[in-house]
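Quick one:
INPUT:
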């Protein structure tokens, strides 16, 4: 940093260093809180992924039972619940500027349409219920996955800024202040010498 060594410049540089250090402390604390939230969200993701895997297995088994009874074509012509009756309710919150979606609740369409099939059966209803449960698990898992991606992006940005302050900007500022202090001290000594010489002549 090329700074003219004056007393006012030294004071400004010290104030700037103080602000930079405060900024670094904030980023460091933010980095720790983001990491803590990432761990929390990741643990919840593991739980939801296990639930998804379980429901996926149940859906596959239910599909196998329904296909065994009706055949693939028999399931393909079964009416489905209209999309208009399905909805997702969710709550959002901000965490250090990161949008987090609390686990949404998926409400599937009306399963009553299964009873309107030409050949209704217990297996069809079980298959429909199993895939509705799988879709519910998928929605919750997707929300947590999105949270993790956004948190990781913010953590990486915060990490880069904190590293830049810690490893580049603050050391350069400290060095500039140190050099300015040395130069001002030399100038004061030179001035003192000139004053003494002036008095002796």
């Amino acid at each position: 940093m090329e700074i003219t060594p004056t007393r006012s410049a030294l004071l400004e540089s010290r104030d700037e260093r103080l602000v930079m250090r405060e900024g670094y402390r904030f980023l460091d604390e933010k980095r720790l809180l983001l990491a803590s939230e990432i761990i929390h969200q990741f643990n919840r993701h593991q739980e939801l992924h296990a639930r998804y895997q379980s429901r996926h297995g149940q859906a596959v088994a239910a599909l196998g039972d329904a296909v065994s009874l009706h055949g693939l074509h028999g399931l393909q012509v079964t009416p489905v619940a209209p999309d208009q009756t399905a909805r997702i309710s969710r709550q959002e919150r901000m965490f250090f500027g990161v949008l987090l979606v609390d686990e949404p609740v998926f409400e599937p369409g009306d399963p009553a349409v299964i009873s309107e099939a030409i050949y209704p059966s217990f297996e069809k209803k079980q298959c429909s219920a199993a895939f509705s449960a799988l879709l519910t698990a998928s929605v919750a898992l997707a929300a947590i996955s999105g949270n993790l991606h956004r948190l990781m992006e913010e953590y990486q940005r915060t990490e880069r800024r904190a590293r830049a302050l810690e490893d580049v900007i603050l050391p350069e500022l400290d060095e500039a202040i140190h050099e300015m202090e040395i130069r001002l001290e030399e100038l004061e000594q030179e001035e003192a010498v000139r004053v003494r010489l002036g008095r002796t002549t």
